[in-house]
């Protein structure tokens, strides 16, 4: 822990009243991974029974959109509404501890940086609801299914681009160590670069495959 | 002019070596409007002759994409590459003066705020080229025309959302007076909210009008 009473970088970051983290990395990651697995499993099983002739690709996409939609809403929601002073709470909740842990990879969360707040507002206001709507749109074969998935992917990619570009321009020194840089800043965010790129490309091709009259 | 030698808000903003603006508002706006009108007129006339059976809507959209694409590339380009120290240049160019004038509506430009820089990087890297590609795609009736226009619109809207949300969260005090708030911060940006909303809605409807096989 640095001279400023917290484990984050840069050390000059002021976090008055910082309460040290109590849960370990494993105690934070395990419930998140277990809950995610439960969501994916539930959507996979339900989509197999109710949907009729949904392809495996469609069912996999439903799992992804349910997982990412709930992650967007639960994490952005708890960051914005329930844990604004998460680093100084005397009796921290699971989510307070989760954001303390993630801040080791990007201390702009602990600092409540304007860019992070703006991105989380857009995440809970648009990306989360759009992702959950995509689950429904795929299940019911709506005609707007591909364009909706494309829109949600593009917003995720644009959000990541703003997230990484601002970090780069603002000093690129927000991680406590190279481990947290690779594991959290790069690793934990990379699914939201790779998967939206794949899904957006697929949607683009499906939409362009048919010429549409003007 | 405030006590810190510049006309911007907040007055505490430090701009060492600030050189006062020489061109008037009219001298800055007139060339911009004239050049924009010239681009729109040229695209309208050329699209009427070469394109064959392009509808008036398609020709109008080509004018918009040419205008917005060139605006994105020329303004973001001059802000990022040619005028990094625009407020302190002894012999300011037209673009230096333009950004001095616009900074009265949003001093984050003069301050070279991280968010502004990130948005301009994305503007010149993606929005500008995508807009110009849309001119070509409409003219040649490419099958990806609607999805490309939709993507470019969504990026413009997401950019505006980040732009306005971060201003709001960072203090909402970046304009020199209510006039500059309404004329520049709101007025000059509103076309990039209104028109992309209309074009994105149209593209969404065109794409959703035909159900696409999975």
TrEMBL record, chains A, B:
Q: Which organism is it from?
A: Urochloa decumbens
Q: Chief localization class?
A: membrane
The similarity annotation says: Belongs to the EBP family.
What range(s) does the EXPERA domain occupy?
Answer: 57-200
User: Which Pfam family, an example, fits this chain?
Assistant: EBP
Places the protein is found: Membrane
By what name is this protein known? EXPERA domain-containing protein
UniProt membrane topology term: Multi-pass membrane protein
Q: What are the UniProt keywords, alphabetically?
A: Membrane, Transmembrane, Transmembrane helix
Q: Which GO terms describe its cellular component?
A: membrane
Q: What residues form the membrane-spanning segments?
A: 28-50, 62-82, 115-139, 146-167, 179-200
């Amino acid at each position: 822990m640095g001279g400023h009473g917290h484990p984050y970088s840069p050390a000059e970051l002021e976090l008055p009243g910082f309460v040290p983290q109590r849960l370990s990395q494993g105690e934070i990651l395990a419930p998140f991974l277990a809950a995610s697995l439960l969501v994916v499993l539930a959507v996979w099983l339900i989509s197999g029974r109710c949907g009729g002739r949904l392809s495996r690709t469609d069912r996999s996409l439903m799992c992804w959109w349910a997982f990412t939609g709930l992650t967007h809403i639960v994490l952005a929601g708890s960051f914005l509404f329930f844990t604004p002073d998460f680093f100084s709470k005397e009796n921290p909740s699971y989510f307070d501890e989760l954001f303390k842990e993630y801040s080791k990879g990007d201390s702009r969360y602990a600092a409540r940086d304007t860019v992070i707040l703006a991105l989380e507002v857009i995440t809970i206001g648009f990306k989360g609801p759009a992702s959950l709507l995509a689950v429904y749109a795929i299940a019911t074969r709506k005609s707007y299914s591909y364009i909706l998935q494309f829109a949600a992917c593009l917003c995720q990619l644009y959000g990541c681009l703003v997230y990484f570009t601002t970090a780069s321009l603002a000093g690129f020194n927000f991680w406590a160590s190279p481990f947290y840089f690779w594991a959290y800043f790069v690793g934990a965010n990379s699914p939201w670069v790779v998967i939206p790129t794949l899904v957006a490309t697929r949607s683009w091709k499906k939409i362009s495959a048919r010429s549409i009259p003007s």
